[in-house]
Write a structure and sequence with these properties.
By secondary structure, the chain is of the alpha+beta class. The protein has two helices and ten strands, in the order ααββββββββββ.
């Protein structure tokens, strides 16, 4: 099954008139809100479809069903290559690599490897503007 899935992706890549990275870049453009994490992080990110991303940090208060911004918007560069989203910050220490596990019109799943044995999965939903997904009263 793994072989068939990879072969299908490879054939799609060969047949598509746009490059795979370009089609991902077109689809990823817009505002994306992360499904709130257990620690309350509920960021919203804007990807401009070119090479700039803006991250808006939010924190959910699950008990009171509220949210609050946790700082100023953070701007960085990004690129998509080999089914990975690379976030590139002015101080290279903050750079991140996120594997694009799935990307659809309204949903995106990213994975980040911490160690050889640990992978974090982040679920995103497309939103209209800077709107987090915290539960609200």
């Amino acid at each position: 099954m793994f072989y068939k899935k990879n072969l299908s992706s490879f054939l799609t890549f060969l047949i598509c008139p746009l490059t795979f990275a370009q089609s991902q870049n077109d689809l990823i453009k817009g505002y994306w809100a992360i499904q709130p994490l257990v620690n309350g992080i509920a960021n919203v990110v804007y990807l401009d479809g070119k090479e700039t991303t803006t991250n808006y940090a939010f924190e959910c208060d699950f008990q009171n069903k509220t949210s609050k911004p946790t700082g100023a918007a953070e701007v960085s560069k990004y690129k998509i290559e080999n089914n990975n989203l690379y976030l590139i910050y002015p101080n290279e220490e903050g750079n991140q690599t996120l594997h694009i596990k799935s990307l659809e019109k309204d949903k995106m799943t990213l994975e980040q490897s911490l160690f050889e044995t640990h992978v974090l999965t982040f679920e995103y939903q497309r939103v209209d503007g800077v709107k987090n997904l915290c539960p609200i009263k």
